[in-house]
Design brief:
Layout lengths: L1 H10 L5 H20 L1 H13 L4 H22 L7 H23 L5 H34 L6 H10 L4 H11 L1 H29 L14
Helix pairs in contact: 2-3, 4-5, 4-6, 5-6, 5-9, 6-8, 6-9
Length: 220
């Protein structure tokens, strides 16, 4: 698992590299590999490595992918309405990713609180980036997307407000909605984290005995 050890050393602090790397490799070679077999042991090792990636970093990465997809989709079809089935699939994938992040991040401690916090951090980070790219889309593609069907209400409010500029009004509307968008990320992320906490407890109750506590006091 040389590649895994290399990645692990990139993720942890310099002062902890030798200790954590040594403990993980010892657990892998002496306990996990003999009892679980090669494939399952490799999955265990990968899961341990992923637990060292901050849930905020995971959330930001998801937000970047989601925001990029939104911008590319706008370039390709600026007037296309959001497909209900496609949106359902996208939301389902995001929730699954937040749950997976919470499982991986909190697995070494198996603390329910750690799983919930991880889900909240991943959720709010994702939604913060997505909200930022939504505001970017308003400023870059305003002349096109103002004619979308889902902009009818916003344009109507603009007309009724007597505001002098649609761009400024749209930015104000989006910024005003930012706390609500972030709250969605926190609440949905917390629910995903709660599910992850239950999953970790279930896994822990079936596989106690040969797990290494690499992060005895997880804080985010």
């Amino acid at each position: 698992m040389k590649w895994g050890d290399f990645v692990l050393r990139l993720l942890v602090r310099r002062r902890d590299r030798e200790t954590i790397s040594g403990d993980l490799l010892e657990e892998y070679r002496e306990h996990v590999l003999p009892t679980r077999g090669s494939w399952s042991a490799r999955l265990w090792y990968v899961r341990q490595i992923l637990s060292f990636v901050s849930p905020i970093a995971w959330g930001l990465a998801i937000g970047v992918v989601l925001g990029t997809w939104q911008l590319v989709n706008t370039v390709q079809a600026p007037l296309a309405n959001d497909d209900a089935r496609g949106m359902l699939v996208m939301v389902s994938v995001i929730l699954l990713l937040w749950t997976s992040i919470s499982v991986a991040t909190s697995f070494p401690t198996r603390r329910f609180r750690d799983a919930v916090v991880a889900g909240m951090l991943a959720g709010v980070a994702t939604m913060a980036v997505f909200d930022a790219t939504s505001i970017l889309r308003v400023n870059v593609f305003l002349d096109q997307i103002r004619y979308r069907d889902d902009w009818v209400n916003l344009v109507a409010r603009f007309d009724a407000s007597n505001a002098p500029d649609l761009r400024a009004y749209a930015n104000w509307e989006y910024v005003r909605g930012t706390p609500f968008v972030l709250a969605i990320g926190v609440v949905a992320g917390a629910l995903c984290g709660a599910l992850a906490g239950a999953i970790n407890r279930s896994i822990g109750s079936r596989g106690k005995g040969h797990e290494v506590q690499l992060k005895p006091d997880t804080t985010y």
